[in-house]
Automatic annotation (TrEMBL):
Keyword list, A-Z: Signal
Alphabetized SUPFAM superfamilies for the sequence: YceI-like (SSF101874)
Signal sequence, renumbered to the chain: 1-21
UniProt keyword annotation of Signal present: yes
PANTHER family xrefs: PERIPLASMIC PROTEIN (PTHR34406:SF2), PROTEIN YCEI (PTHR34406)
Organism: Hydrogenophaga atypica
Annotated protein name in UniProt: YceI family protein
Claim: Signal is one of the keywords in the record: yes
Lipid/polyisoprenoid-binding YceI-like domain location: 23-187
Residues spanning the membrane: none
InterPro entries: Lipid/polyisoprenoid-bd_YceI, TTHA0802/YceI-like_sf
Amino acid sequence: MRNTLIALAAVASLSAGVAHAADYAIDPTHTFVTFEIDHFGTTTNRGRFDKKEGTVQFDRAAKTGKVDISIDVASVNTGTAAFDKHLQSADLLDAAKHPKARFVSDKFAFNGDKVSEVSGHFTLLGKTVPVTLKANKFNCYDNPMLKREVCGGDFEATIDRSAHGLNYGVDWGFAKNVRLVVQVEAVKQ
């Protein structure tokens, strides 16, 4: 009987130490999705999306995770109202017909304890293609103001916009490749 109790206590203590995935909510005040695209080999057009939301599940011990981020494409902001309006039009992002872009992933790669990339699928203009976001930074910390853990990093990928049917200006020499930069922080729930 004593050996059975010792065995049960050992199993209980082992299972108590098993980590489970934690849920995190994207902090929109510390999360930015920006883009850069070449403009005739002369300059770089830049912009960002001001409205985004999403969730992350992250299990550091198991080295697994999931992410689901939605972007309101009508919130595009280049600092120039006329350019924003054109980006929102049917020529480009077609915000009226396709109001959301979305990135979904359940494949996290690690370098040691740090996330090195997140592979998933990016949907834009109703077309979904594989995308891998490479991490330039990744960290988790105890936020002194929120009194909760926050995880996040700086990620980037280059996508071929024509894979989504976004071909405006390609015949004139506008670049097809768009650099996406995603700065994300998510708060443990």
